[in-house]
């Protein structure tokens, strides 16, 4: 399933770059307020960051596509009730802070209201490639590697500079401990992008 989605994403990116006339691309960075909802986790937003590249291809005056490739770091926190929820598997000496690093691939549909304002929405896939957490005994992983979500937001364009805000609703259960409790991600982002072309 993951390979199929990645293949579809790469094909869309190739299709976008094939029509290079209306193509723009650049770099972007944002502040990422990350929240992980679920039993045993503190349900509050923590500050992280994202950095990456994007492409924009408008196939008409109003509509276009915007694929992105982003590196993100987030830091949810273990809840005080974690050991009570996962009695047989929890590590009593686990760190409070959890560090997670993702490669994130949003594929957004663009709707240009005018030259200044664009609305963006679409699916997002995130792959957890590094985690620094010791929540469980015997070095078991507490988090699943894949996280699917839906992103929506708006962009203000000032010549080559973009300012944007976006919200991402996680749809996947990222809890890899057992099936009793679901963990789902929420993200709110504010950032800037700069067109290279």
- In the sheet with the most strands, the strands line up as 1-2-3-4-5-6-7-8
Report the CATH topology name.
Answer: Porin
Low-confidence stretches: none
Q: How many DSSP helices?
A: 2
Radius of gyration, CA atoms, in whole angstroms: 18 Å
Gross CATH architecture:
Beta Barrel
Q: Based on DSSP secondary structure assignment, what is the total number of beta strands? A: 8
Characterise this structure:
- There is one protein chain.
- With 197 residues, this protein is mainly beta.
- It has one domain (2-195): Porin (Beta Barrel), CATH 2.40.160.
- Helices cover 11% and strands 53% of the residues.
- It is built from two helices and eight strands; from the N terminus they run H-E-E-E-H-E-E-E-E-E.
- It has helices spanning 2-18, 82-85, and strands at 23-37, 46-58, 63-74, 99-112, 117-132, 146-158, 161-170, 184-195.
- 27% of the residues are buried.
- The model has no long low-confidence stretch (mean pLDDT 90).
């Amino acid at each position: 399933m993951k390979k199929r989605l990645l293949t579809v994403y790469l094909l869309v990116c190739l299709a976008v770059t094939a029509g290079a006339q209306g193509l723009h691309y650049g770099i972007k960075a944002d502040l990422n307020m990350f929240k992980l909802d679920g039993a045993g986790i503190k349900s509050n937003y923590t500050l992280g960051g994202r950095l990456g590249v994007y492409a924009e291809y408008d196939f008409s005056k109003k509509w276009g596509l915007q694929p992105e490739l982003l590196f993100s770091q987030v830091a949810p926190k273990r809840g005080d009730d974690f050991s009570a929820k996962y009695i047989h598997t929890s590590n009593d000496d686990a760190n409070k802070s959890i560090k997670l690093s993702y490669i994130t691939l949003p594929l957004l549909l663009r709707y240009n209201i005018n030259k200044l304002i664009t609305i963006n929405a679409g699916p997002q896939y995130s792959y957890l490639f590094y985690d620094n957490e010791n929540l469980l005994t015997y070095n078991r992983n507490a988090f699943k590697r894949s996280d699917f979500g839906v992103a929506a937001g708006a962009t203000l364009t000032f010549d080559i500079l973009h300012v944007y805000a976006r919200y991402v609703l996680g749809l996947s259960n990222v809890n890899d401990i057992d099936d009793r409790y679901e963990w789902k991600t929420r993200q709110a982002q504010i950032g800037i992008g700069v067109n290279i072309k």
